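Researcher: We are triaging several targets before committing to wet-lab work. For this one, the compound of interest is S-adenosylmethionine. I'm pasting the protein sequence and the ligand SMILES. What I need is the predicted three-dimensional arrangement of the protein with the ligand bound, expressed as structure tokens, so it can go straight into our comparison scripts without reformatting.
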Amino acid sequence: MPKIKDIPKIDRPREKFLQKGADALSKSDLLAILLGSGIKGKNVRQLSENIIKKFGKNFLNITVDDLVEISGIGQAKALQIASAISLVKRFYADEKSNEIIIKNSQDVLSLTYDLRDKKKEHLVCLYLNARNSLLKKEIISVGLLDKALLHPREIFYPATELNAASVILIHNHPSGDSSPSEKDNQIVEKIVQAGEIMGIPVVDFIIVSENNHYSFYEKLKKQKEGFDYIADGIQGTLFAMFEAEKPAYEITAEKIQENYFYIPQVKKNHIQLHNRRYIGNKHKLLEWIFSIINKECSGDFFADIFAGTGVVSAVATKHFNHVLLNDFLHSNYAIYRAFFGNEVWDKNKIDNIIKSYNNIYSDDLDENYFSKKFGGKFFSSNSAKIIGFIRENIEKNKNNLTEREYYMLIASLLYTADKIANTVGHFDAYFKKELTNDSFFMKPIDPINVQEISIFQEDANILAKKIKVDVAYIDPPYNSRQYSRFYHVLETLTKWDKPKLYGVALKPEPENMSDYCRNNAKDKFAELVRDLDAQYLVISYNNTYDSKSNSSRNKITLQEIEKILQTKGSTKVFEKNYRHFNAGNTNFNNHKEYLFVTKAKT
Ligand SMILES: C[S@@+](CC[C@H](N)C(=O)[O-])C[C@H]1O[C@@H](n2cnc3c(N)ncnc32)[C@H](O)[C@@H]1O
């Protein structure tokens, strides 16, 4: 019989626990740690496997007597196991007895009593499970409640993370009057609709003042039925009550899409398209951008010709039948093919490959291109070894993968590498002090459902000559920071041509250097505008022109953009205050994002 010391080091339960954490261990591995050693003829793993098999689901009810019946388990070991079980049960019971069940508005009020004295308006959310047990109480906003400023995402994003079944909102009126204002009514309507769409119903919205309260639930519920909330997974929703109250209450599909589609539908343990660090990404501006596009533009075909992370295209797929993505970076192209592709792929296959990648231990690996170049610099030595090994493995297995599967694995690896990189978010430099971040853990991506999609990896000005679209969204770089240089490690990882690298930041020979980061940016932009065959041009730009740092100074002025657009048609300009990426030298007082919408002359 093999002894535990004969098992390779990486498979030993204790080492595995220390390297990967408890979640990586099977039940019998965990029990093996508790048992410590095996008996004659059975190593500790076999012994624990026998015990788990023997008691199965009854494990938590095992007694000392049951245990000593197993050959090799003496009283001391039996006591050890039985005590551990009792300890867990005890804590579990304590936790359960702390459960707070919210039965009605009075329970809510007693939990939020402190709000009555607050001098500023607060919005607080209670997250409940299917039995109306409180999962979390969270302050959503402080200060005047305004429909325009409050985004449903702030309420429902934590709800999805907590797996909440429903929410209750409480808002205070420092004025002393608890009756809802027109603004309150609008906010309730917005949140209630969003909850309905998200499948996380809003059970009640309560307004409190110093001596009074107003509950929408109580107001809408017929008093004779009592005021208790409904639980057990069939929570009464304010949405349904509004509908019953007001048959003319309208919630059109268009309105839903316009307002709420960008709330991420978080699929646990999956990578979402926006889960990466990328300079100039528009993730936080999507609501603003699309509120304008939806109003100002029409048509079926949307082209995102400097697509970056692709988040703008992701929203465009909800509004346009055909979406085109383009960016000249290799890593972005791979990510688009993975998330937006419509070719076949096998979910089980991808999940299993990723699972096997997560079981790789760096101690078992030889150094490789990636670890030799980037280990101890952009990544911890261990993580770099694993990343390099996996990338090589994907390449070797290419023939067994569909193209979509190939790009899906590369995209997962790119996101994972970005997450654990020893950087501020780009690869122009790494922290001098090596991170001991060995937490390599790869997750599958959560692809986006699309209708018609076109994916390109071309220079935008060359592509512009070849396409005819309804809306062309143009979001070029604004300053001299070259994206291909900032994300060179991701480029190298995608191309996997193992280039010679130069300088402290270990960059390859320059490739895909953008004219939009150079002094001829204005001329390139003029050429692009001239060549694009589109009904509408939508241009994002910002006003960092006043920047103290050369590298973050705009390459085209806002006036120049307007002048160039005049040649194409009539232009409307929209602006918004926004904070953005800052490498330290940029003064972003007054920082504004601009959106130019030009309707082309026919
Ligand atoms: C401001 S970012 C776009 C951000 C994007 N809208 C998002 O939300 O993530 C500009 C992008 O243009 C790409 N790019 C720069 N010059 C290009 C060119 N000449 N042709 C194609 N892509 C270019 C860069 O790689 C970068 O991803």
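Researcher: Any quick observations?
Model: Residues 559 and 565 are 10 Å apart (CA to CA).
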